[in-house]
Amino acid sequence: MTRLAICPGSFDPVTNGHLDIIQRGAKVFDQVIVAVFNNQSKSPLFTVEERVQLLEDATKDLSNVSVDSCSGLLMDYAREKNAQAILRGLRAVSDFEYELQITSMNRKLNEDVETFFIMTNNQYSFLSSSMVKEIAKFNANVSDLVPEMVEKALKGKYSYVDDKAES
After folding, report:
1. Potential cystine with 127: which of 17, 76, 104, 108 (Cβ 3.0-4.6 Å)?
2. Which H helix or E strand runs over 164?
């Protein structure tokens, strides 16, 4: 039986912290599906399609990782894909409190799918997509926080900031 995990998130944008969790999960599970969800409580910078493309580019060297998008409930998606596990990263205690609530609800919705948490590497413990966007918005260097293609995409999204600053 193939051990399939889903690594869900909004990935707006994907960071080196996300990639660390995906890469480490790919060593444990036979297959990992990175599922891009559109978080209704956030205003995304990148479209779902752009996020999927950035993730596909960032994970292209991981043969057992694929990227997909979903707009429904994670547990319905997990059932549809016959997944055995949800793969999540934890940075701090505050993440754990949030994740505990989600995991408990997911378990209620589908008790056949287990959630596995991977602690982030210390070098990424502060990193979030929101922080990356804030830094990039002010044209600060994000090259050690995100893959190169994401850095370019961020510069493209925020290029209007430089144009206004120069006028």
Report:
1. 17
2. helix 159-166
Query: Annotated binding site, which residues?
Result: 10-11, 18, 42, 74, 88-91, 99, 124-130
Catalytic residue at 41?
Answer: no
Q: Which of 27, 43, 91, 104 is catalytic?
A: 91
Active site residue 18: yes
CA 46 to chain centre: 13
13-61 pLDDT, tens digit each = 999 999 999 999 999 999 999 999 987 777 899 999 999 999 999 999 9
Selecting among 3, 42, 137, 152, the annotated active-site residue is 42
pLDDT (0 to 100) of residue 19: 97
Q: Is 159 a catalytic residue?
A: no
Please list, residue by residue across 91-128, b when 16 or more beta carbons sit within 10 angstroms of its beta carbon and e when fewer do. beeebeeebeeebeebeeeeeebebebbebeeebeebe
The enclosing H or E element of 51 equals helix 48-58
Q: Is 129 a catalytic residue?
A: yes
Tokens at 145, concatenated: 């926080």
Neighbours of 4 (CB within 10 A): 18
The two beta strands, 114-119 and 4-9, are unpaired
